[in-house]
Protein 1
Amino acid sequence: MLLTALAGAAAVPAGADGSAARSLEPIVVTGTRTERPSADSPVRVEVVDREEIDRTHARTLKEALENVPGLQLRPIHGKAGYEASLQGLSGEQVLVLVDGLPMTATTGSTVDLSQLALADVERIEVVKGAMSAQYGSAAMGGVINVITRDIAPGLAGSVMLDAGSYGAQNPSGDAFVPGNRHGRFRVQGGSREWRLRLAGDIRDSDGVDPEPATWSQPGDAVQRRQLDLRGEWRPRAGSTLYLGASSFRERAVSRFLQSLPGREVEQQKREDAQRLRLGAGGEWHAANGFRLRLDAVDETLDDETRKHAAGSSFDDRDAELGLTHVTAIADLPALGGHLLQLGATWQEASLVQSIDGGSELDTAGTVARDSREVFLQDDIFIGDDWELLLGLRHQDDSDFGGHAAPKVSLRGRVLEAGGWEGVLRAGWAEGYRVPDLKERRYRFDHSSLGYVVIGNPDLQPETSRSWQLDGRLGRGPGTWLDINLFDNRLRDLIQVDTADAPVVDGVQQFTYENVARARTRGVEIAARWQASPALALSAGYTRMRTRDEDTGSALTRRPDHQARLGVDWQAARRVAVSARGRYQSDELVATADGARSPSWQVLDLAINFDWSRSTRWFLGVDNVFNTQRDFADPNDFGPIDGRFVYAGLRYAWRVH
């Protein structure tokens, strides 16, 4: 049994004990950077698989993550996008990866989840807390890893088209004109040695406007285009070399009224963002279990914004962000119950930004920082049922020097009887995040809107200590109950609050500050029940408490309660119905006056009709009960989009 387990960690079998039931468990890589069935991973990994993406008609990473228990999606201030918060830690502290490699932060500090399309995505893996030491700085809150599809020999592809309407909230004022249009395609294939994939996605939204006759429009009009290309050479079994390129473009238009003394002025902001991502790497396996992987990515993001009012242009802002990242990982052959992994990473980030021709940083020209990191992981198998995972990562940053972050995870099978299996996981890890260039060097001047955000060069790195205790009872992959207790203790947490923002010449000045001590803790409960071959129920609930340990107040924008409910019903041989419900309690917005954003709940419905093995018709209603924020209340952060009704077609084919 021990040898089987060791081979399982290195060679990706159906299951660690070869059982048929566990062979259906999804294979995950994010927790340990080695392929493991999810139930066998010593680090808890939650998965959004391809079936869920197709069933719910998710078009973007943001839509695919909406139903992950305990994950909070927050609108990015001033942009038509969303960031993720995990266990009370914000988007700056959550690392977003594509096939294990980081993305450029869209705003300079957080990734816009709405920008990443899903045409070539196989699954999404989520690790909460600082339990994955291999990913280093910016992963202290967790990791979201988007994993693309394998390219199989032969020829395969798919096309998806859909369109929908926000009804009376279409900016056109015509409820029967599609206000949101989407299309995507994927073509892939090749021989045993050479393989190629091309995928593209187009999304056009006219936005959302509860009062189309007025100038202001709460939901921005956005056009997004994405094209991905990947080529592979597999000279022999266990060896792969690849090259990849991805191009993304976004054009967004927002409209708002700016209050000036004695009048209101109609203003408009146009934003044009372009991202070019180039990647290369390879993987080599040896017969004795040795594996070497090398990956590199180079990415640039150009972002231009222009504001217009009364026929003139102002606040012309131009930014260019750069990211270069190289990672090498070696898995050593199993020896004496140990699987050792060694890794090294080099990364450089750069930022240059100007407004109306002048630098918007605290210095002219480009600012940059780089880091060098090494990590060691020892996966120790203790008998047939227990596993101890030890990890250590050391980071040497050009601006902040060296820092070491350890982790420990323990997994044990405590029950195996009558088809049921009980697993316990316990973990402790230290997290570490260096302040990004925006937080330290940036002056985000929105004086025309009454505020500025000023970088703080004296910021210190954030650190955390994360405890996770997870118990899972399951009967195969279809029925299970998972309870996870978490406790994250943070030092020098960086955030912007309205409590102490002074007003200078009528402009409120915000700045980034280190909160000396903070804590987030709570419980996450998730369950799935395969009630019958045609009916599956799922649910999730998160209870979280946050605290600024110096002031005793709660942290802002962290709800105490979140809940998820899902129903999947095979109503007929070709007809499937899915419902997804989400609830979020009220949340503190500002500590100074105790302002809170109200609670809200949303229900989505999706219907799929499989006309043939290749063709699927679908329709759906997002936000069935038309739940929206009060747009007149600046403290209401509920949903922006109202009821959305859509229909579409997906066609897939394969030639062996």
Protein 2
Amino acid sequence: MDMEVTAWTSMYHAMHAQEDRRPFSRATLRRIGAFAGPHRRLLVWFLLLSVTTAVLAVATPVLAGRVVDAIVQGAETGLVVRLAALIAVIAVMEAGLGLVTRWLSASIGEGLILHLRTTVFDHVQRMPIAFFTRTRTGALVSRLNNDVIGAQRAFSDTLSGVVGNLVTLVLTLVVMIGTSWQITLLALLLLPVFVLPARRMGTRLARLERESANHNAAMTTQMTERFSAPGATLVKLFGRPAQESAEFEARARRVRDIGVRTAMSQSVFITALVLVSALALAVVYGLGGFYALQGQLEPGAVVAMALLLTRLYAPLTALASARVEMMSALVSFERVFEVLDLKPLIAERPDARSVPEGPVSVEFDGVRFGYPSADKVSLASLEEVATLDTRGGVEVLHDVSFRAEPGQMVALVGSSGAGKSTIAQLAARLYDVDSGAVRLSETDVRDLTADSVRETLGMVTQDGHLFHESVRANLLLARPEASEEELWEVLRRARLADLVSMLPDGLDTVVGERGYRLSGGERQRLTIARLLLARPRVVILDEATAHLDSTSEAAVQEALGEALAGRTSVVIAHRLSTVRAADLILVIEDGRIVERGTHTDLLAAGGRYEELYRTQFDQSADREADREPVH
């Protein structure tokens, strides 16, 4: 490795290693060891080959010196040829071992990334909905990317670097001191001139890089929000494009300025260090040549010392920043473990059983519930706040009890924020109750397997969320093994078959981010088709028609009729006209059931339901609707 490459390497590591002086517990190291366990055999081979490569790296300069001595002394040609051949063999061995070592490094590093990523991904999937409502998606994704890669660097780069460089350094010093302790001492005296600028300049460049990264992150956030379909619509309706452009340009200009300063700082730094290395080599040749002319040193030893000089500076500068690199990698491990240490609020019991076969009843028995505080479901670093909001636990449902018999429809109505959606989420076990019980077919949902609850209960929300994938992929999310005929059948039942058949690629047409290439009614009907494909025995509709116009609502209502036929259902409705045929209507206010009964009974009672109904329909519409109910 020549001096310029050494300079670049030392500066790079100084820039990218972020020092952290926090103590690390043995428990953290044991957990790291557990992740490294499956790669133990590869790690041993990796370290052995790194040591072997380090030994070969020191052997080459020594042999080169002997070749020079043989030439100067007029030795036989065969000796020179044999030494040259040995150097060639060592070079081939170094190249081969380098490839094998690189393969081992890549296998260990990528294997660790795979293990960490899948572990974190699976753990995050088990987190409650409250976790996702608080966490910034970008910060969470960063844990799966940047921090995982930072943790992997501890094994694939830092660990091997420490072992290999330490062996190289010891062998090089032994050989150099044995050759000429005076020249070795001089080389060590010049070392601070080489190492200290690297650390100082690296710190300065690291600050510039972090500032640039922050500006780039801000630009990425701005682009992500503004370039999404709803964000672009908001900017066009209420935003100021000129101001948006000016803000983006200001950040981009700052990134440009930092880039220019970074490039110049790097160039000055590299030039200075290459100059220092050239002066060091000049001193070695000068002092070594003097000793050689005095007969105190062989000419070949001078050449060997010059070659060994680069082998000395490279590992010393690398080892100087190894501690900081290791601390940086350990910080990444801790940030990954921080996510893994968040305990999911919902855990499946070891003896959990499946929902019994046949029609399913839904029962709420004295349910009380309050949403968990942030410190129970989130991390300050994931919310990008200094401290977590400790508020929470305030009871939002108070002694809620009702029962939907198999095949019945129970409707929930009431003011916004009354607790209707909370009831729906508890039925689907997106949260667990604080007291009381939610039961499916007489069995507490906490005693059921998560898979059986998902298979039994299907839900359609008001936003009709779809992934940025094809129609087919969004449908198969419900039942991956469904056939082509089954897909078209559910589309027909959801009143979407004609539309999908006219799309450019039919079932393989991509619906866009959150399904924005479809209208609101089309998105809802596609989510209903997905529900039909899942074939749940219980259906929950959370204001599925709340934001649709009358035409779209009529089409969705037809599709919902297919979805609800013969199934137990809990329907949350904003438009009371959609639930007049319900077997039981519950009026929810402030987390309590204040009225219950059929549409006719509740109207006759003249209470809160009648008040809600009157605000939506005039008296003549009420009488007409009562004579001819809408199903």
Protein 3
Amino acid sequence: MDKKFDVLVIGGGITGAGIALDAATRGMEVALVEMQDFSAGTSSRSTKLVHGGLRYLKQFEVKMVAEVGKEREVVYENGPHVTTPEWMLLPLHQGGTFGKFSTNIGLRVYDFLAGVKKTERRKMLSKDETLSKEPLIRKDGLKGGGYYVEYRTDDSRLTVEVMKKAVDNGATAINYTKVENFLYDNNGKIEGVEVRNLIEDTVYPIYANTIVNATGPWVDTLRTIDGSKKGKTLQLTKGVHLVIDQSVFPLKQAVYFDTPDGRMVFAIPRDGKTYVGTTDTFYSDDPVHPSMSIEDRDYILGAIKFMFPSVSVTAENVESSWAGVRPLILEDGKDPSEISRKDEIWESESKLITIAGGKLTGYRKMAETVVDLVARRLQEKSGKTFNNCMTKSLPISGGEVGGSKGFSTYIKDVVAKGMDAGLSKKDAESIAKLYGSNAPIVYSLAKQTVENNGALSQVLFAKIRYAMEYEFAMTPTDVLLRRTGMLLFDINKVQEVKEDVIEYMADYYEWSNERINTLTSELEDEIHKATVPFEGKLIKQ
């Protein structure tokens, strides 16, 4: 690329996407590169909650609870199509992590710190009320429950919608492009990067006045290349989730519950499945390929048996799983669950800006802090001035639906367009809920459905086309894992349609036989990782 950008962001997870959007809307010339697919790292492997971090009150992380609690509402208002309020049940048992009195006080403080709206403030439940919300909970020692609101999200789609909005505002975003080296001026200051396009295997430079390292688990890898890995470093921890069909685990209510070893785990109903997680163990292997081990699986199955003793879930009932790596800032002597989720910004002698730590919920605020620093550095360097941050009330792509209050009305109004395209009312509604104000584009693609799409339904065909034409999807795994979530929540359907998806994408992109074989193997590897545990051992303190 010949042009010199104001800022280059390295990393296409939620943090990098947020930085790109903030910088672009302030009037900066922005580029972003990601070595995998957008959101392929931590940002597609979370518990899929935009939550306020209730458990951080126990660690007296008052400032963090206040900040992410308020940001939760911002994320929801700017993208109600990818964020949904979810009432969470916190069962209180004799000898459990939370007592009835402390939970009442804690949730009250949580409501205050997080600025929770009146209709979503906590409720304390009796034993009978708790069991009426979720009859599967262990009755022995049950004293009652807390009832409060979290926000369920599709983490990968949230990331992609933020990235699309950044591109709409002028950012240049490229996936499958890996930074291999930094380029320096005569004073030893970073002035660019050398990247490799991993699809075409070409190498070229990108120049920018400021460079931000927002690579999550790979933050220290880039600091090492820069020669600036000193002081604080990352501690990676792994989290695993299991997906079980509702016919086996008929959970009707999201539950945040104790484990036998004193941790807390979520069980959440979604699309006919129940998913349960997460583990929290130290991790030192390749962050590109975390996966479920037998020990991970058995730990979560044990937690389910402990809290839901009437549910007979076995290893054979686990349909799929996912594993993610959390890039936390090292704190010696602490167990994984005790390490702070705070974010920190570092600036090296070469002027590389690095953002590390943090949570999905706080991505927008983290981006604002980083871009404030970038704006100061650009003004010092070139005298340029930029707009103030405007992302707090800026809908992301698909979010132009009148906020959370207007979303249901929007869905009713737009469904007719989907039905005009030949979709059933149910399918038109599901597309509207998933794609928000972008739904009419998906409808128009559905209308173009051609015959002979094999097992591809009209809806899936439209989703694939949309993912390729509007959402940067380059591979079958991009589509089936990250753009649609099918590989996580409908893996049997993936097995049914995978060959037709590959064939359709191969024809669209004109792949060679070698490329088809490579991407078919990649998809099969992801299916294998999701379904078959490896014989691994957890790393413990």
